[in-house]
Amino acid sequence: MSWLVTGGAGYIGAHIVRALAEAGLDPVVIDDVSSGHESFIPEGVPFVRGTILDQDLVARTLREHDAEGVIHLAGFKYAGVSVTRPLHTYEQNVEGTRVVLAAMADAGVTNIVFSSSAAVYGTPDVPLVTEDLPKRPSSPYGESKLIGEWLIAAQGVATAASDAPLRHTALRYFNVVGSGDPSVYDTSPHNLFPIVFEMLIEGKTPRINGDDYDTPDGTNVRDYVHVADIAAAHVVAAQRLRAGESVEPAYNLGSQNGLSVREIMDAVARVTGIDFTPEIAPRRAGDPDRIVATGELAARDLDWQMRYSLDEMVRTGWDARRNAG
């Protein structure tokens, strides 16, 4: 029996693949490598190059590898860009999820862990985000993730009385950072850590977008969670599903406290040994002061923990990026 990881050649997916293998849940990867890297997939892990929009390919892969479940990460994950590419975002994230569910039904696979996003909440006006907070996504990306959750839940309801009911859960998280393997690092051109690392490597000065927010040091406060912790939670979710144990429809993988952009910049300077004073740029439109999620439900059910300090998050990410040359 195996677990199919859609998007398993990506930064987060590749960590989940490693965590599944370590837990004895044989991973199989399907990825079109539009943003992932085949080199991120560990040797010996079956890899199918292709798009999740190809229902026959996904169903065939599930059958050929005797899959018992899917961890569904594949999609277009750039919230800012989704505003200018809404049709592409919906195709990849909404239609892609529908196709995966249809392929699972064809192949008789009944377990799915969905990689959702805290973007489903939009810009909440509460200090701590809980799972029952109203969903008001503020980008096509956030909308597409919420619709993905709806699709999966609807299929769960539709199959509940059948011989093969769909068992599912969704994991929502914000900013994933660090590295759990020196050969895997975040290559996104839109995430804070890789942006700062690339600027330092190029001899440039990193920027902070606004320092006049209503926070202790004036900079945005967000959830930053280590990728290895994210991967571990996905594995526990898969284990609970396959064991028939109860799970919530969705879990926040939140830090509870959050970190400010200034704190991250200070940690980067401290860990890398590169002394710099970040430039202050104008605020980005729509950026709220603070968005931090609780992880209480996930701690209860998924052994969710923040196992890495800020310096460790920076150090593991920086070492992996430098290792890449």
TrEMBL record:
<feature type="domain" description="NAD-dependent epimerase/dehydratase">
    <location>
        <begin position="3"/>
        <end position="254"/>
    </location>
</feature>
<dbReference type="Pfam" id="PF01370">
    <property type="entry name" value="Epimerase"/>
</dbReference>
<keyword id="KW-0520">NAD</keyword>
<dbReference type="GO" id="GO:0003978">
    <property type="term" value="F:UDP-glucose 4-epimerase activity"/>
</dbReference>
<dbReference type="GO" id="GO:0033499">
    <property type="term" value="P:galactose catabolic process via UDP-galactose, Leloir pathway"/>
</dbReference>
<keyword id="KW-0119">Carbohydrate metabolism</keyword>
<dbReference type="InterPro" id="IPR005886">
    <property type="entry name" value="UDP_G4E"/>
</dbReference>
<comment type="similarity">
    <text>Belongs to the NAD(P)-dependent epimerase/dehydratase family.</text>
</comment>
<dbReference type="InterPro" id="IPR036291">
    <property type="entry name" value="NAD(P)-bd_dom_sf"/>
</dbReference>
<dbReference type="InterPro" id="IPR001509">
    <property type="entry name" value="Epimerase_deHydtase"/>
</dbReference>
<protein>
    <recommendedName>
        <fullName>UDP-glucose 4-epimerase</fullName>
        <ecNumber>5.1.3.2</ecNumber>
    </recommendedName>
</protein>
<comment type="pathway">
    <text>Carbohydrate metabolism; galactose metabolism.</text>
</comment>
<keyword id="KW-0413">Isomerase</keyword>
